[in-house]
Amino acid sequence: MKKHIYDEKNGLSYTLQGGYYLPDLALPKEEPAAYGKYGMLRRTFLEEHRNGIYTTLLVQGKLVEHLNQTDREVNERMELLVRQMADNQGVTAQLKEENQMLWVGLMNSIKSAAEEIVLQELIYI
Predict the structure, then answer these.
(1) Which of 17, 20, 26, 35 is deepest in the core (most CB within 10 A)?
(2) For residue 14, what are the domain limits?
(3) Element (H, E) at 67
(4) Are 47 and 75 in contact, with CB atoms under 8 Å apart?
(5) Cα(67)–Cα(57) distance, rounded to whole angstroms?
(6) Does the model's pTM come out above 0.85?
(7) Residue 59 scores a pLDDT above 80
(8) How many domains does the chain contain in total?
């Protein structure tokens, strides 16, 4: 028996293993994983609540690309929201110089609010 065969009907090649011909299947190459916190949150959400989407992205080799893109979008949105919310609430560099503890408290509150928004808009959908 031949070790390798090619089936022209379906375009697949097969390798003999233990008396059976098994198809030579491989996942497509993906871009390197560069995602951070929000990419990991998105991945966990997809695995636990949107398993069909997760599996489709994984099999198509687009999961890491999706997670990298989601992480970039969330970080950009966070920066924009924090900047806008700080401007609206009057949290300035002058306040930071005058009352650093108040500035830190306000900025932490703003970051928490912005994160709640982006999690609902971009991660848990």
Answers:
(1) 35
(2) 1-30
(3) helix 63-89
(4) no
(5) 10
(6) no
(7) yes
(8) 2
List beta partners, residue 8: none
User: In the prediction, which pLDDT does 28 show?
Assistant: 62
Q: What's the CA gap between 70 and 123, in Å, rounded?
A: 8
Identify the H or E element spanning 31: none
* C-alpha–C-alpha distance, residues 80 and 72, integer Å: 12
- Asked if residue 57 and residue 17 are part of one domain, the reply reads no
Distance CA 40, CA 67 (A): 7
Residue 16, classed as helix, strand or coil, is strand
Q: Which pLDDT score is estimated for 27? A: 63
Look at the block and give the residue holding tokens 């928004």. 117
Secondary structure of residue 5 in the 3-state scheme:
strand
In the block, which residue shows the tokens 């924009």? 80
* Region label for 13, one of left (φ > 0), alpha (ψ between -120 and 50) or beta (otherwise): beta
